[in-house]
Amino acid sequence: MDKTVFERIRDREIPAQFEYEDDQVMAFRDIHPQAPVHVLIVPKVAYPTLEDIPPEDDLQLKLILVARQVANKLGIAKNYRLLMNVGRQVQEVAHVHLHLLGGWRAPQANDPETMKLV
User: Fold this and answer.
1) What's residue 88's pLDDT?
2) Quick check: helix, strand or coil at residue 40?
3) What is the mean pLDDT of residues 84-101?
4) How far is it, in rounded angstroms, from Cα 31 to Cα 112?
5) Cα–Cα distances in Å, from 111 out to 25, 42, 96, 116, 117?
6) Is 118 helix (H, G, I), strand (E, B) or coil?
7) Domain 5-115 has CATH 2.102.10.10
8) Most Cβ neighbours (<10 Å): which of 25, 58, 64, 109?
């Protein structure tokens, strides 16, 4: 079976800009960011979807704790979004991952560009 792109990143076959890594989880910058800060938090074990992680496994909690740690490290802890797509019809990669998005500027009254980002 072919490796997912995240397994290839884990195995250092594809470069990535890492923000965090331990024995269970890695966090790296998304190559197609949807926000000024866009980091993917990915378990090293390749579960296809969230529904494939055994309920007794604390990996779900670990992903959120790492997201909070990375948000703090990157200075966005007061204003960020977490997003997870679940299921083969909505996931681009069949390997569970959590999106950490943030870094938007505070809205300015005379700047319609910042008003639409909030």
Assistant:
1) 86
2) strand
3) 94
4) 27
5) 39, 35, 37, 9, 11
6) coil
7) no
8) 25
pLDDT at residue 56 in the model: 93
Q: Is 95 designated active site?
A: no
> Whole-model pTM?
0.87
In the chain, which ranges are E strands?
18-21, 25-29, 37-43, 80-83, 98-102
User: What is the domain partition of the chain in residue ranges?
Assistant: 5-115
For the chain, what percent of residues have pLDDT higher than 70? 88
Given a contact cutoff of 8 angstroms between Cβ atoms, the answer to whether 7 and 95 are in contact is: yes
* pLDDT at residue 99 greater than cutoff 70: yes
Catalytic residue among 32, 38, 95, 97: 97
What six digits make up the tokens of 72? 């703090």
Is residue 46 within 8 Å of residue 65, measured between CB atoms? no
Distance of CA 101 to the CA centre of its chain: 8
